[in-house]
Amino acid sequence: MKSKNNSFEINHILKSKNNCFVLLELKGGILCSGKILKIDEFFNILLEETFLTSKNGLIFKKVPAIFLKGKTIKNIRFY
């Protein structure tokens, strides 16, 4: 069980990542990169200025915004 203090620290760290750029690898192999608008403790993420890349790297698509559920994310890199 999470303590209230740990939950506060996690939320504080995640909120500090708003407006940061991120590269996400999804469980299906798709890559997403974009700017974080919102992120929560379950790693549900709202991105803007997002680029999607297919698993084989041949298909690229730009979308203005996308919402990703945390359970679909395999890897996350902040930069």
Shape: elongated
- Domain tally: 1
What is the CA–CA distance across the termini? Answer: 30 Å
Number of strand elements: 5
Tell me the CATH topology.
Answer: SH3 type barrels
Largest sheet: 5 strands, antiparallel
SSE order, one letter for each helix or strand:
HEEEEE
Strand content: over 45%
Q: Taking all residues together, what is the mean pLDDT? A: 89
Proper CATH architecture = Roll
Give the gist of this structure.
This protein is α+β, with helices and mostly antiparallel strands and 79 residues long.
Explain this structure to me?
- This protein is of the alpha+beta class.
- It has a single domain (4-78), classed as SH3 type barrels (Roll).
- 15% of the residues lie in helices and 49% in strands.
- It is built from 1 helix and 5 strands; from the N terminus they run αβββββ.
- The chain has a 5-stranded antiparallel β-sheet with strand order 4-3-2-1-5, with no helix packed on it.
- Strand 2 and strand 3 form a beta hairpin.
- The model has no long low-confidence stretch (mean pLDDT 89).
